[in-house]
Amino acid sequence: MAQPRCWYAHGHWIQGHGCRVIPSLAFVHIPINATDTLQAQAGDRPNYQPGINDEVPVCQQSQGWCRDGRYDWDKPECRYGGHDELFMRALASTPGVMGLFYGHNHGNTWCYRWDTLLPGMAVEGNGINLCFGQRTGHGGYGNWIRGAREIVVTRDKLKDFSVDTYMCLESGATVGAVSLNATFNRDWYPATPNDETETQT
Question: InterPro entries, per this entry (predicted)?
């Protein structure tokens, strides 16, 4: 199997910025393996990682793929093929990346700070915050309330590589407000309600 090329790992986007650490955020559709491992290890901590945690385990990148590139969900050794390891290494080795944001799992809306080597993983986290969004559209599965994760970026907070984020729901409510900073995972927050809406036909 050909080795995947990770455009992110090459760092060409840093050139021309005086080689200083640039605060940044990353966005993908499907969560990385560290998300599934954090969920399994930490469990449900609604006052430290507020959000809905209804989809266990996380549907993640490389799910159902064998290491040799074959898709075979029925083989236990192919439940996770490791094809996102290069991307995780690039994220964990890039200074200034404050958060990775994704969706895909409609029933998960939490964030978690990945700052250790997790059991069964070959990549050690560097303090990047991993965050789900909120179910946004009227298609797809589930009856979780629709909304959006909003990310508030200010110059003052960027000096400390910190951003604020919360969910703005279709009901008008704001839930899950947290500061993604050096003490996230240890700071206490109100739990997020698990609200649902009727599916429109």
Answer: Metallo-depent_PP-like
